[in-house]
Amino acid sequence: LLRPALVQRLCVVDISPVRYTRLSNFADYVRGMRSLDLATLADRAGADRGLQPYVPDPVVRSFLLQNLRRDGQSWRWQMNLDLLGDHLEELGYWPALDVGPFQGPTLWLAGAESDYITPERAPVMRSLFPKVQLVRVKGAGHWVHSEQPDVFLSALRKFMDR
């Protein structure tokens, strides 16, 4: 919205342009990831077991563990876990902007089982992105790209090829 000339098409995945008061279970996920002692971690299976109390869903746990990397004999998180954890509340923040709407094509991909995109949030999305097309992906929650990767890629390719 601040630099529309830099964007030809936009794909927004399972989020709305509103301020979220809660971010699902992200705080638990970060707490669990921080709880792992990477210096003594033997293998990815151990990390999986260590995350279970914090991330009970095996699909989400598997997704998060994709960010665990081995460098020689030690493990590290690919993302900046400290930065994410310390600023988690800002991820749900949507600023008040004094700008016009984005006039380019916009794909709004939603997980059918997610509560991030609701009918109450659609008017805000449509006012900021008037050329938006909403696509709900069956069998997916918030982690659309991870839970239904083939459907996600198919919808994205179709949108990009237009």
Q: How would you sum up this structure, described in words?
A:
The chain is of the alpha/beta class and 162 residues long. The chain is built from eight helices and five strands; from the N terminus they run βαααββααβαβαα. Helix content is 37%, strand content 15%. The strands form two sheets. Strands 1-4-5 form a three-stranded parallel sheet, covered by helices on one side. The longest helix has 13 residues, at 149-161.
Describe the structure in brief.
The chain is an alpha/beta fold and 162 residues long.
Shape: elongated
Helix content: 25-40%
Oligomer: single chain
Largest sheet: 3 strands, parallel
Structural category: alpha/beta
State mean pLDDT (0 to 100 scale): 91
Number of strands: 5
Order of helices and strands: EHHHEEHHEHEHH
- Sequence of strands across the biggest β-sheet: 1-4-5
Any key phrases for this structure?
162 residues; two-stranded antiparallel sheet
Set out the fold topology.
Layout: E1 10-13, H1 26-35, H2 44-51, H3 58-65, E2 68-71, E3 74-77, H4 81-86, H5 88-91, E4 106-111, H6 122-128, E5 132-137, H7 144-147, H8 149-161
